[in-house]
Amino acid sequence: MVVPEEPRGRSNSVPPAQTPTAKHMLPYLPRPPTHTSRYGTFPQKHEPPAAPGEERGPPMPNHPSPPQGGGEPSLAPPHRPGDPPCCPPATRWPPLPGTRSRTPEGPPGRRRRLLEEEGLVAQGGKRQRQRYVTKVGKCQVNLGNIQEKKRFLSDIFTTIVDLKYRWFLFVFMMCYILTWVAFGTVYFLDAWARGDVAHRGDPSWRACIQNVDGFVSALLFSVESQRTIGYGARMVTADCAEGVILLMAQSIVGSMIDALMVGCMFVKISRPKKRAQTLIFSKNCVISRRDEQLCLMFRVGDLRDSHMVDAKIRAKLIKSRQTAEGEFIPLEQSELNLGYDTGEDRLFLVEPQIVCHVIDRRSPFWDLSAESLRREQFEIIIILEGIVEATGMTCQARTSYTEDEILWGYRFEPCMSLEKGAFHVDYSRFEMTFEVQTPAASAKELQERQEPQPPALGLCWDQLLPPRPPGTGQRQEEPPESGDTD
């Protein structure tokens, strides 16, 4: 008897606009608990296809497997030498009633095709594993389909400062060149309308602007006036009022352009973003025990002698999850406590510091163990903020750690020593770690092992009997009469 193939269940997290094909369904389908976890960033991790000679994992859920053991005899033919070694021999299933079986496209064939397609999707997903923030702190988020772009023009100063250097220099030069050409054209048109060009070389003609008899000479006069060069060969006379008005307008416009462009250039050169390049983070995080508590630690350092004022550090966990209602939250941000309650998140960053996150009940890593760490998918973003001592501007440095960059059971080596009356920092040991004895269990399991077991509850017979009202069931002694004597 052939077991009919059950349709694969569709999760509520699949967007309704997409067609539920294999490629769209695979990232949302439930995975066996031995290979992945419930949560993960996308694309989801998938196991690569098995190599020749290796055993394949358990079959895909909701797919029947051919009978094995002492039931019906197997319908699979013996392996022939001509079969390709990379694929298992196809199982021949009897066709269903009313169907034509031209090729062996039974459930095993479909399952094999789906596994191969899943392997391709997994390889493509591994190549497309995108970080939210790079190691140097650049956010990998591209904004698109912005309809109201006029908002950028309302803040023209920030827009110009945020431009790349090649576009910034282009805007810087064009602001001056366009104003020179514009006012030079106006000067030339004024000289042509008054007849100064036609009376070129006439000593008796009183021109508006002396020695302006063409476009080139008008352009030179525009540059000399705006940049206050003043060679003395060309100048405005008192015979025309429009020349004086044009000279005043060009002086005002030139001053405004100088203030805007020079200010933008100064801010762009002195931006604290360059100061963040001298703030370094360790390439890996480590998890080990500190003060009998499991902790997640990383190292941060400052390469400059001028220190960061009021340096604060915080961490964000980027992890996708699915709610109880079936909603898929792609990149949910949660806070990692780095000592905000105790003030340990404020650093005196003179020498390299090891920042510690205690994995307690409030930590999202409460259930994380060494085994589950290899199946998880998340990203930790570290943000270091402070005031630059030289300029007084706020500086921010960022980095990120993925699950592959966390070392379980390691600790950072010391990089500071005392030499000649001062502390010496050896940055060549900044990244060095060494292995320490650390349990592979999660912090929750370690806490449960340390908690004492509650004592067994003992039952007493008096506790099982119902309570009796006072004065019943007991013989009360009567007080002796006053006349009775022994």
TrEMBL record:
One of its GO terms (cellular component) is monoatomic ion channel complex. It catalyses: K(+)(in) = K(+)(out). GO terms for molecular function: inward rectifier potassium channel activity. Residues 1-127, 441-486 are annotated as: Disordered. GO terms for biological process: potassium ion import across plasma membrane; regulation of monoatomic ion transmembrane transport. The keyword Nucleotide-binding does not apply. It is found in: Membrane. It is a multi-pass membrane protein. Keywords: Ion channel, Ion transport, Membrane, Potassium, Potassium transport, Transmembrane, Transmembrane helix, Transport, Voltage-gated channel. Residues 279-450 form the Inward rectifier potassium channel C-terminal domain. The chain crosses the membrane at residues 167-189, 244-267. Belongs to the inward rectifier-type potassium channel (TC 1.A.2.1) family. KCNJ9 subfamily. Associates with KCNJ3/GIRK1 to form a G-protein-activated heteromultimer pore-forming unit. Interacts (via PDZ-binding motif) with SNX27 (via PDZ domain); the interaction is required when endocytosed to prevent degradation in lysosomes and promote recycling to the plasma membrane. This is G protein-activated inward rectifier potassium channel 3. It comes from Limosa lapponica baueri.
